[in-house]
Structure formats: C-alpha cells, structure tokens
Design goal:
It is built from nine helices and 15 strands. It has 271 residues and is an alpha/beta fold.
Length: 271
C-alpha cells in the first residue's frame, strides 16, 4: 500500500449511514434538545489510513466537499456494511498506523499494507486482497539513466517512511534515502532535483505520472518477497478478522475489487 504539507492528525471523515457493530456513540443532539428518553446509539468501525496514496486512498472534492476516496475505502465500506456498522475514517501518517491500531484508537488499517513478518508480530493481518508490482519513478530526462535496479546504486531515492518501498531502497547499495510521510512530498523532491528517483506502488506511480508533467516510470523493476496487500487488525480481535476475511472472499468472488481498482484509478486521474 501503499498511498503520499503534513497530514492533519486526528482528521475524521464519516461515510455511510449504516448501523451495526463496533463502538457505541450517544446521540448528544437528542439529549441537548431536552429529550429525556434514552438516546439512540450508533455502532461504528474506525478505519486508519494514509490518504495520499492514489488510487488506494486519496482526497478528492466530491459534490463540493473534500472526501477520502479510493478502492481501499470502497473495501472498508463493504466491511462496515457487512457488519451493519457506520464507517469512520482517520487520516494519519502511514508510519503511525500500526501504533494507533495496537493502542485501540482505530479498529483496522487499510492503506496499501504489505504482510511483512515484522507487521505480523505486531498486529493480525487479513488474507491478501490485492497484488501490485513496484515501480521506479524518475524525471523524464533520466528514464534511460535509471533503467535497471543496478543503476540505482548510490542514487538519491525518495520513499514513503515506514513503507515496503523504504525497505526495498535500503537494500540498494550506496543508496541515499529521503524518507517522507507523503508521496506528494516525494514527487516534489523529484521535481526540484533533490532526489534522483522514487520507488512506489505500480498503481500509485501510474497515477502520479499521468497527473504530474515531467515524470516517467522506468524499466527498472524492484523485487519484493512480501507479495500482495492486507488489512491490519488489532492482535487478538479474531471476530473482526474473521468478518474482514469473509467480506474479502465475497468481494473477490464477485469481481468487485477489480471493479473498485478500475473506478478509483479513473477517479484519481480525473481533474
């Protein structure tokens, strides 16, 4: 997952009007109006994501409102719907997501998350729901210069902090890493010649290359052992993990995830 100013911590966007499982919330508006009856409750499930990672999750103005969209968000909506819950989204720096999950501040993480062994020790991980190749993005003039992974030796490489791409870059001999919170910040580093290249998720790279003039994807192909993307759940929450996997199985059998990817990619590329 991947997915790319500083992200405002604690930003909450509520989507859907569903009811069901999760935390209870009191309807304070009813109490304030003088209603002495017991206020109705709404069950919620809180998603943590880093919404700068198109087409996985990103900000888009929809109907005049800034909205977090993307195919990871579509999957999260389905999980909440299957639980009969209201989905609440927290937009957080990628590197803080698993800590927020372990502390119980969020219920699940969907953010282009790769199933590394280190992550498995910290949180429970769902079945793989999507696979994507990695890509190397450079300035157009440098496409041939960085056409193989060997040519990246000693290069200045921009990556997202805490990501699988950061791990890939650390394995490149002599590489000088610039690790930043957001992909958009890395793109700026490329545009201003502060880094030579960036390693990104394939769909993310394609989205930025299409929308940012002067950037291209090279022929270099990073290899990773951790294949595919998963959803993070707090250790021991087997009930939620089982429900997440059940929803993922349904979405894959119905071909919905491929539909979501295509729609989110188109949305991320639209002006």
């Amino acid at each position: 997952m991947n997915k790319w100013g500083k992200i405002s911590l604690g930003m909450l966007l509520t989507v859907g009007l569903l009811t069901g499982c999760g935390q209870n919330k009191n309807d304070n508006n009813s109490a304030a109006a003088g209603n002495t009856d017991k206020a109705p409750t709404t069950k919620t499930i809180t998603l943590g994501t880093s919404a700068d990672f198109p087409p996985y999750e990103f900000h888009k103005v929809v109907g005049g409102n800034d909205t977090i969209v993307g195919f990871d968000i579509d999957i999260a909506k389905d999980i909440a719907a299957d639980m009969g819950a209201e989905l609440v989204i927290k937009d957080l720096p990628f590197e803080s997501l698993l800590n927020e999950l372990s502390s119980g501040k969020i219920d699940m993480v969907i953010s282009g998350l790769s199933p590394t062994e280190e992550r498995r020790k910290a949180v429970d991980l769902s079945d793989i729901y999507y696979k994507a190749q990695q890509a190397v993005v450079v300035r157009e003039a440098d496409k041939d210069k960085f056409a193989t992974m060997d040519t990246l030796k000693g290069a200045k490489i921009g990556v997202q902090a805490g990501s699988i791409q950061e791990d890939i870059a650390k394995g490149i001999e002599g590489a000088q890493l610039t690790s930043l919170t957001k992909i958009s910040e890395i793109v700026l580093q490329l545009q201003t010649n502060r880094v030579d290249a960036s390693i990104m998720e394939g769909p993310v790279a394609k989205s930025f290359v299409k929308n940012v003039k002067g950037l291209v994807i090279t022929d270099a192909t990073p290899e990773v052992e951790d294949d595919g993307y998963v959803i993070g759940i707090k250790k021991g929450n087997t009930e939620l993990l089982d429900q997440v996997n059940k929803t993922l199985t349904r979405l894959n059998s119905e071909g919905k995830i491929d539909e979501y990817v295509a729609a989110a990619s188109e949305l991320s590329e639209s002006k």
